[in-house]
Amino acid sequence: MTLSSLSQINAARFETAPIFKALIAANRALAELKGLAASIPNQGILINTLTLQEARDSSAIENIVTTQDDLYREDDPEAAAGTAIKEVLRYGQALRAGHAQVRQSGLLTLNTILGIQEQLECNRAGFRRLPGTALRDGAGNVVYEPPQDANEVRRLMAELERFIHDDPPFAVDPLVKMALVHHQFESIHPFYDGNGRSGRIINVLYLVKEGLLDIPVLYLSRHIVRTKPDYYRLLQSVREDDAWEEWVLYMLQAVEATAVETLHTVQAIKGLLLQTKQRIRANHRFYSQDLINNLFNHPYTRVEFLRQDLGVSRLTATRYLDALAADGVLEKVRSGRNNYYINRPLFDLLAYGRAAA
Questions:
Q1: Fewest 10 Å CB contacts: which of 96, 104, 156, 341?
Q2: Rounded distance between C-alpha atoms, residue 197 and residue 31, angstroms
Q3: Cβ distance 251 to 175 under 8 Å?
Q4: Residue 276 near residue 295, CB atoms below 8 Å
Q5: Cα separation of 24 and 106, whole Å?
Q6: Pick the CATH number of 284-352 from 1.10.3720.10, 3.40.605.10, 1.10.10.10, 3.40.50.720
Q7: CA angle centred on 54, ends 49 and 60, rounded to 5°
Q8: Cα(297)–Cα(165) distance, rounded to whole angstroms?
Q9: Domain map of the chain by residue range?
Q10: What is the pLDDT of residues 304-322, one digit of tens each?
Q11: Across-strand partners of 340?
């Protein structure tokens, strides 16, 4: 089984009625999401909260499983307890760092992709240099063997970088191109480890590069988790049967479904922000925008987080948080040696797709 060159694919094969129909729906949903996200005064709130959800779901595809509570208790992967939570937090860091680079340069380069893998795996192994990598099914049977020669891996990745930047020009909608880029990256399988998570980060960074999103809030991994057998089946069908249209349609439907779902989440976050702001402003003299930002950047906040964000003493930060807990704005819980103050409506929205009643 050989790996197809993207330059050999005829763009006209994607000019079908089903693809055009799916493109209209996906682009409309993405445009609505981009517009709504831009209306949030502090977009860092969306980046921090939704990026962690993407990190959790993307890691779950690789059987790296964490609880929602563990996800928000920690913010430093080096200090986190347990391998799984460290890996999820590293994913979030890699996504945010990659987004910053793409926004600054307007490019999605091999250096950015290598940096993503380095942050995910905490090593600088880079592209594969040794043979022996094979993809296996649940029974241990080899279903696909990616390129083995180190020079071929580097050549294919350089070709992919040129394709990402439209060299030579490839006249298809950016969402179709995203689907092609993702498949090619996963089929090259350039790293010893972290290929799936790196590839899913590349998806959203490509949308940012193309201006379809300003911030990385489209977490496709949740849809892939729900349709995991289809995802792997369709990846393989392209390799075996050249079934590109079915793969592209799957990815377009994933974009639409995820954009609509994320749109509802962002609308709900915006509503919770307004409600919380009005409640604290009415009842507490220590209200500030920095305080609101803290409570929505950290669904599980701590005295240390608030002290750093507001530049106040530990005693003052404790007084603020205890007052908000007494008022029912936050829920105070103790875990180990730490007190956590939970923004319960926000946590329930992120974890379960609904705010607490």
A1: 104
A2: 25
A3: yes
A4: yes
A5: 25
A6: 1.10.10.10
A7: 130
A8: 33
A9: 42-257, 284-352
A10: 999 999 999 999 999 999 9
A11: 333
